[in-house]
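pasting for ref
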Amino acid sequence: MQGEPVTYWPRATPEAERGAVRGITVVGEEVLHRPCREVAETAFGTPELAALVDDMAATNHAAEGAGLAANQVGVDLRLFVWDITDEWGVRHVGHIANPVLDDVPAEDRRLVEEPEGCLSVPGPYRVVPRLDRAVVRGRDQDGRPLVIEGRGYFARCLQHETDHLRGHLYLDRLARKERKSALQEMRDSRDQVFARRAAAARRLGK
């Protein structure tokens, strides 16, 4: 099952409209630094899982994020959402549970170095090498199989969010000096970032 193209989708998705904005975890919080649990078979199709997807979409929207993993709202589950416009002007919106990234054959592997940020590292961006193509397989909130392919910025998003579910942040891909400078920049800017997110949530009535 692939994503389905549409001619129009509202800026605030139906999920984001329904959902509540949750607090976003920050680097150093334990839930961000360990692998997440699989979404259990019994969870698919439940109101609880649907509400979590809605809340994650609302939280990502209010924070003006490209994607958000469940452990970024303090929930230890292999689940992430995305709402991202790639460099070709195509908007991608969705969610996936229990995602697994396909291996990319060596002959098709092309690393691209681009700046990358993270809602759980409020403020700094740093250059991180990522593959320019990613295919992720998993299931939607009702348990239906999903196969999502991304290129460019969307591929970076899929890899970044899958990393989160393994307990890794983009900081873990940096050299020690770069990581230290990013953490210092975060400490200097986090209050301003948090205030901006809170103001956005109020404007959205969340």
